[in-house]
Amino acid sequence: MPTVPRRAVRALPLYLATITVTCMILPRFVAAQDVPDRAAALEVRKQFLADIDSLNAKFMALAEAIPADKYAWRPGPGVRSVGEAFMHVASEYYTYAPAAFGATRSPVIERSKEGFQKFEAMSSKPEVLKHLKEGFAFTKTSISALDPAAITGTHKLFGGDRTIIETSLGVVDDLHEHMGQLIAYARANGVKPPWSK
Questions:
Q1: Which residue of 31, 135, 144, 151 could cross-link 90, Cys pair, CB 3.0 to 4.6 Å?
Q2: By the 8 A CB rule, do 135 and 18 touch?
Q3: Which pLDDT tens digit goes with each residue over 133-164?
Q4: Using CA of residue 36, residue 41, residue 46, residue 50, what is the dihedral sign?
Q5: Three-state DSSP class for 156?
Q6: Average pLDDT for residues 71-92, to the nearest whole number?
């Protein structure tokens, strides 16, 4: 069995202390690198708005393509219907998306679980088309109007110290998830997404 030199044994506490300090400091250093300055914040906002613009065009096209009589269809009990899923997307345009940048949410939806449920229950095709359009316009206007200083650095967002990099990715991730959900709903009802070949 090989023996360990005494020097290595004596250096072990220093080595372990160095690793411990590095593990404690490195995450903070890396996190500090992710805090957006003015240029980065403007680019994040630009890319976010471009992504949700593309998403909204698809949500609108899909909402138009699905027949009105299919808006009450749901894949199972206790699951959002087609219309409710679209209204959930619209609710995120009015609330979640602006809040991700520190903008004020819309008063269109009452600030309560019941308020969201009441809003999503208005799930007819005309209501969906109206609120997808108006909610998207609200998000775009609210976020575009923010002063660059308001979106740089770290801010109190969603109950913690966050950057718009973190929060905007959360929003687009969620919206893309709902896009997939609504594509599945459409195909289950014999509707091909208009942009599919």
A1: 135
A2: no
A3: 999 999 999 999 999 998 988 888 778 888 88
A4: positive
A5: strand
A6: 96
**Who's near 106: CB < 8 A, 6+ residues apart?**
94, 95, 98, 135, 138
- Residue 189 and residue 82 in contact, taking contact as beta carbons nearer than 8 Å: yes
The torsion region of residue 112 among left (phi > 0), alpha (psi -120 to 50) and beta comes to beta
Average per-residue pLDDT in the chain? 87
Of the candidates 164, 136, 135, 165, the residue with the CA atom closest to the CA atom of residue 151: 164
Token pair listed for 48? 């976010």
List CB contacts of 24: < 8 A, sequence separation 6 or more: none
Q: What is the pLDDT of residue 157?
A: 78
What pLDDT sits at residue 32? 47
- In this prediction the pTM is 0.81
| Degrees to nearest 5, angle at CA 41 with 39 and 44 | 110
